[in-house]
Amino acid sequence: MANSTKAALPSYALAAIVVNRAQSDEACNRIEAFLAKIQRTSATGSFFWRAATAEIAASEQVYRIFELDPALPLTLELMASRVHPDDLPMFHALFEQVRNADSDVDVELRLRISDGSVKYLRLMANGIGEQAGEMEYIGAVHDVTDLRLSEEALGQARAALTHMARLTTLEILTPSIAHEVTQPLAGIMTNAHTCLRALAANPPSLDGARAAARRALRDVERAHELITRLRMLVAKKEVTPESLDLNEAIREAVGLLSSELQKHRVVVRTEFAGDLPRVRGDRLQLQQVVINLLANSLEAMSYVEDRPRLLLIKTDRHEGAQVCATVRDAGLGFRPRDAERLFISRSIIERHSGSLWAASNVGSGATFSFALPAEPKA
Fold it and tell me: What's the gap between Cα 154 and its chain centre?
């Protein structure tokens, strides 16, 4: 008759179980230490939240990010004590929103630490369903402070570079400014004297005075328009993308340099594509690029005496869905210092998702080109 009671495990089997459990605990400890190291390295903490009871379980890194005492039980109120005052309404509204609804979370918020510094966090959470009617979430908190500070520094550097480009443009335009402003000022003075003489005549010539006053007003408007455009060029402001006609923008830029081009006996020829797609970008910055390229070509041709100083400005469609603008001169060819001068222009074009390049022509001169993405049709 078989024995119905279970036989006791031999001693060696019990020893094996103890060893296996010890090995398992050691492996778990290694895994936990490994995961904690990953979280510290990536500045990411993990947490669990049960909505109904407000129970929160979090990794050590969450406490470290919020700069809280790990001995304290983690609560929403304790976390909120570190949230930046301006972001507190969003923080409370977020947890209230997901308390009774299964929805994913992906937001950024700021912390105000005890020393007054600010941390930038990205908080992500996913609902894992209901347990006994209670919503539960698992999530992660990522410290993105370094990334945000780097982005701010990059933005400041770009703003400084843009302002430098405007100042460079102003330096280039200084001779043209003097010429363009002097003309209307001289006209205003001449017409003012004419108006006074007409009024001083016996009898006064009212028609002549009115005509002179109208001409003076016309010159005032001309000077005002010029100064307004120049102030826009050099003003330190944010990028304002707009849908624009590149042909029109280039014509305006050429107009600002027209007196200098004439002074240096440069013959300008334009070949603008009639069916050119519109582009999206900052008009003033793109005009700065054109002015810089024209000024570079103007200087390169200032020493040319044995051939006509020809300047071709051309627009056309480019490979793919792009628009291309080209400035071709008859100067001394592409020189090493030209590459340095193109730095600002290239930076502006690349910020517009475009590209800029240059090469020496066969024979004489150089060609500068930039391409921009065409604006998708509505």
Answer: 9
> Cβ(323)–Cβ(374) under 8 Å?
yes
**CB proximity list for 131: less than 8 A, separation 6 or greater:** 50
DSSP-based three-state secondary structure for 301: helix
Cα–Cα nearest to 124, from 145, 146, 107: 107
pLDDT at 93: 85
pLDDT for res 235: 60
- Distant-in-sequence, close-in-space partners of 88: CB < 8 Å, separation ≥ 6: 80
CB 241 within 8 A of CB 279: no
Asked if 140 and 224 count as a contact pair (C-beta separation under 8 A), the reply is no
Q: Nearest to residue 51, comparing CAs of 98, 107, 104?
A: 98
Residues 6+ apart with CB under 8 A from 82: 66, 67, 68, 111, 112, 113
Which pLDDT does position 4 carry in this prediction? Answer: 42
Residue ranges in the chain modelled with pLDDT below 50: 1-7, 9, 11-14, 17, 19
Q: Can you name the residues that pair with 131 across neighbouring β-strands?
A: 134
Q: Residue for token digits 């299964």?
A: 102
Q: What own/partner pairs with CB < 8 Å and gap ≥ 24 does 53-58 have? A: 53/134
| CA trace torsion 195, 200, 206, 209 (10° rounding) | 0
**What is residue 5's predicted lDDT score, i.e. its pLDDT?**
42
- Residue 364's closest CA among 325, 321, 335? 335
Three-state DSSP state, 333: coil
Q: How far apart are CA 282 and CA 244, in angstroms?
A: 9
SS3 of 316, please? strand
Provide the β-strand partners of residue 271.
314
Q: Is the overall model pTM greater than 0.70, yes or no? A: no
**Cα Rg of the chain, angstroms:** 36
What are the Cα distances from residue 119, in Å, to 58, 67, 77, 116, 143? 19, 11, 18, 10, 7
Bridge partners for 55 per DSSP: 50
Percent of the chain with pLDDT over 70: 75
**How many other β-carbons are positioned within 10 Å of the β-carbon of residue 197?**
14
Q: Amino acid identity, residue 277?
A: P
How far is the C-alpha of 279 from the C-alpha of 179, rounded, in Å?
32
Contact 272, 247 (CB under 8 A): yes
